[in-house]
Structure formats: C-alpha cells, structure tokens
Amino acid sequence: MASVPEIRFAPARRGRIAYQCFGEGDATIVAIPPSAQNIEVAWEDERIAAMLRRFAGFSRYLHFDKLGTGSSDRSVPVAGLDERVDDLRDVMDHAGIDRAHLFGQSEGGPMTLLFAASYPDRVASVTLVGSYARLAPDPLSDELRAQITERQREFSQRWGTPESDMVDVFVPSLAADEEFRRWHQRYERLSATSDSLFNLLQLSVDVDVREVLPLIDVPVLVMHRRDDRVIPLEIGRAIADGVPGAQFIALDGDDHFSYAGDVEAWMSELERFVTGTVTTTPDRRLDTPPQITVRTLGRFAVVVDGEEVPTNAWGSRQARRLLKRLVVADGWPVTRDELCDLLWPGEDDAAKLSSRLSVQLSAVRRVLNGGVIADRQTVALDRSAIRSDIASLLALGDDAEMVDAYLGEFLPGDRGEPWADVTREQIRRRVIDAGHRLLRRAEGPDAEALVRRLLEIDPYDAASHQALIAILGDEGDQAGAARAEAAYRAAMAELGIEV
Q1: How far apart are CA 156 and CA 476, in angstroms?
Q2: Which spans in 119-262 are helix H?
Q3: How far is CA 41 from the centre of its chain?
Q4: Phi, psi of 261 (to 5 degrees)
Q5: 227: how many CB neighbours lie within 10 A of its CB?
Q6: How open is the CA angle 472-475-476, to the nearest 5 degrees?
Q7: CA–CA dist 484, 101 (Å, integer)
Q8: 191, 219, 319, 359: most buried, per Cβ within 10 A?
Q9: Rounded-to-integer distance, Cα 108 and Cα 102, Å
Q10: What is the pLDDT of residue 243?
Q11: Torsion sign (Cα): 388, 392, 395, 399
C-alpha cells in the first residue's frame, strides 16, 4: 500500500469511533486496541506499518481507536469494559462486517473475550497475543491496591514525556534506538492524555473475565512471549486453560508489543490459524435482526425468532435475574450499584462487583443479541430492539384485548421481590380495571364468564366477587350465589377484612 488508509468514523452512542479498514484477503480480521494507541500516527513507524501490511497481505483488516483515545473522540470519558464491547459492535456494523476473526493484544484481550462470549454469531475465531483474562492478584488486598494505584499514577505522569519508560518496559529490544524513543513519546501524547491513561489503568485492575472463558465456543489461539516484562507467561497460559479446546503457543522474546521482536513467528501462526478456520457467515444479516420477545406473564422466557431460549444457554441464574430487573424498568436506566446489590447482596467490593456485573451483562447480550444500553453508571433495556409482553399489554387501547393478553401472573417465580411485586400489582390492577369496564357493558353468560376470568386474575378482587354473586342471583342460581358469597367471605377473611 502506497499510502495510509483513510480514517472512517463509526457513530456510537457516546461519540465517533475512528477506524481504518484495508487489505484484500478472504478472511476478515478485526483488531481490538490495547490500552491506548493512534491508528493514524502508528503508520509513521516502519515496524508497525510493516506489521499492518503483513495483515493486509492475507486478510481484510480493521483496527480502531477506543473512545477517549487516539483519533476517536477524546472528550468523552473512558468507558468501562462492557461499554467497549458494544462500541466494537458499532464499528463492525458501520464497516458492514457481520462476522470476523478477532485479534486482541494486551489490554484488548478481555474485551475480545467478552465480545466473543456476548456475540458468538459474529465471531469466527479469537487470537490473543500477550493478553490476560485477569491481571491483578486475586484476592487483591487494600495495601496492594494502593501500591498498584501509586505505580499507575507515576507511570501516567511520565506518559509522553522524556521520562517515559514505555519503550524500556514494553519494547526493550528497541530501547537503544533513541530516534524510536523520541517518536514513541510523541505517539503516546497523541494516543491519550495522562488522565485518560490513568483511568484506563485503574479500570484494568479489576477486570476479570475468567467466568466467561468456558462459554466461548469459537476457535481460540493464545500466544505469549516467554519473557514478557508486562504480563507474565502463566497469565496468558491461563486463558488457554480456561477456554475449551484453545491452543497455546509460547514465543521467544521479551517484547510486549507485537510489532517488535520476531513478528513473523506469531504472524505466521495467526495466518495459518485464521485462514484455516474461515467458516460460513450465518444466514442472519445486519439488516434483518432477530425478533426477540421477553415473556414475563405466567412464566419467564426469552423467545428469539419464535424459538424459546433454553435455560442452559444463559450460563447463570444471575443473568436471568438481571434481565428481569431491566424488563421491570421498561427502558429506564437502572444504576449499576442497584444491580450489584440485587445480584450480590451484602458484598461491598465495588470494583470487583463492577467486573462481575460486566460478565453477567455479557450473558444477557449473548441471549438478546445485544439488547441493553450501558454506560459507566447505568444499564437499561434497549426498547428499540427488545419487546416485552408487559410493554405490549400496557400499550393496548382495547379493554378486551388487554384482558385476553394477560396470560398469567407477572414473574410468578419472583414473588416477594420488592422490584417485581410493585410491577406485578400494577399490571394486575390495570387488567382488572379494564375487565370492570367491560363488565359494565356485558350481559348474561358473557358477564359471568368475564367475572370468573377476573377472579382467576385476582381472587381477592371484592368488586368481582360481588358482581358474580349478583349475576348468579339474577339468573336464579341461588345455590351458586351462596357458594360465590362463601368464597367472597373466605377471600376477604384471608385479607383480614370482615364482610
């Protein structure tokens, strides 16, 4: 390629994401960025440019800058991990890529793994180089956390200055090259501000996607240099140990950045892996998203294109509970703190809970093919993509249709949960009120059938009991009226009401 590929911008919810797409190969590779980079400036260094040209020789290659860094909008705050997952989906959508081989380096690995678990139909394979699923020690003591924070602060303050030690630690094979060192300091400044970098490093401390590793069912290749000074070899090996069927290759060298050292050693393995695992694209296209409905009346279920999602597809009960809470909110945002309290009551390690919530959101996204809108503070159901039976019922303007649409109690398996109980009673009251309006116009057998239906919905509705007694009496069924009155008294007695 004689020139730098043009920069394109994918519109995302929080800003514009810069990306480049180039190459003519049959395989499509989407590269997930490390902590901070600049895809436009990177071409100035011949080593990086050579690596990118090598990719273009056998693939259609896309790389991008995460929001808050590089050539993407930098005025927005650095996003949490699960927000970045949806940013990747926005980039692929804008580039017209249905399915791709994902290539994750360093800090981009957890995002790659989470995306593969969230959107498996869009992933042909995963290759990771020098990455991790969990980087910090576990458990992480307060003392060690404070030490890590201080080191990250000092590192961020040196970022982009003559005192930066990025080259010495991340690409030691180039440490003696003073021209490269000066260029890299400029590159750092154009990749992220020191504050943004510090925020990214802080977020990485609590990243933990180990829970999703067993759920990844696409081919996975993990490569790691034996003497990597940034991420030890055993951390990379742990990824391969956690993903069923994953391959692991230990590479010689101590450079963390993949464009330095023996590039051909890992590039040839990646090319062999990717070109040998190209699979057909699913029938579903971007312009025909699946029809997804969440059922909550009578029982909880998710139906995708007419097929109910089996329980074992969720991975955990927590993911199901999370979706139920979002359905109750009906598109309104729910704070992450509330969701963490709901899923893990009594636990107070906010940073660790945030990572665990990201994993559960990944399971929800996998089932819903997205379906949620998240930022660093809140999560909401995407009403434009997901239908729920309660939203459809409450939108009905016809009383008879509303009564017919009520297929059972709202989330019957979650009785006693305050977040569900209020909605359960609101829906029941709306349906009963609709039934009462119908009852005022009904006569004869239709009236009796309707009132019995209302008592099925709410056995403690006094007005329906009284209406049934009156209807049976008017029909001359005195015995039936007496039984109805006895049932009325018994129901009220259970409520502590004497009639």
Answers
A1: 87
A2: 142-158, 166-170, 178-191, 194-205, 233-242
A3: 30
A4: 75, -150
A5: 13
A6: 90
A7: 67
A8: 191
A9: 10
A10: 96
A11: negative
Cα separation of 386 and 409, whole Å? 21
- Say how many C-beta atoms besides its own lie within 10 A of residue 408's C-beta: 13
Which percentage of the chain shows pLDDT scores above 90? Answer: 86
pLDDT at position 277, please? 54
CB-based burial, 417-450: b 16+ in 10 Å, e otherwise: bebbeebbeebbebbbebbbebbeebeeeebbeb
- DSSP letters, 403-447, are HHH--S-BSGGGTT-HHHHHHHHHHHHHHHHHHHHHHTT--HHHH
The least confident of 279-293, 321-335, 432-446 is 279-293
Q: Are strands 372-374 and 334-335 parallel, antiparallel or unpaired?
A: unpaired
CB-based contact 100:30 (threshold 8 Å) = yes
User: Which tokens in the block code for residue 108?
Assistant: 């981009």
Q: Mean of the pLDDT values across residues 92-100? A: 96
Burial class (CB in 10 A: 0-12, 13-18, 19+), 494: exposed
Q: Which residues contact 260 (CB under 8 A, 6 or more apart)?
A: 47, 171, 173, 174
Give the strand pairing for 292-295 and 386-388. Answer: parallel
Residue 389's pLDDT band, with cuts at 50, 70 and 90, is very high
Residue 425 has pLDDT above 60, yes or no: yes
For residue 285, is pLDDT > 50?
no
Task: Determine contact, residues 78/102, Cβ cutoff 8 Å.
Answer: no
Structure tokens at 395: 């939108």
With a CB cutoff of 8 Å and minimum separation 6, the contacts of 51 are 258, 259, 263, 267
d(CA 491, CA 468): 14
pTM above 0.70, yes or no: yes
| 359-393: burial string, b at 16+ Cβ within 10 Å, e else | bbbbbbbbbbbbbbbbbeebbbbbeebbebbbbeb
Q: What's the pLDDT at 287?
A: 57
Q: What is the pLDDT of residues 210-228, one digit of tens each?
A: 999 999 999 999 999 999 9
Strand, helix or coil for residue 149: helix
On the question of pLDDT at 283 being above 50, the answer is no
**What is the model's pLDDT at position 138?**
85
Per DSSP, the residues of 325-373 read: HHHHHTTS-EEHHHHHHHHSTT---HHHHHHHHHHHHHHHHHHHTS-EE
Separation in Å, CA 470 to CA 402, 455, 458, 467: 25, 14, 18, 5
Is the peptide bond between 139 and the residue preceding it cis, with omega within 30 degrees of 0?
A: yes
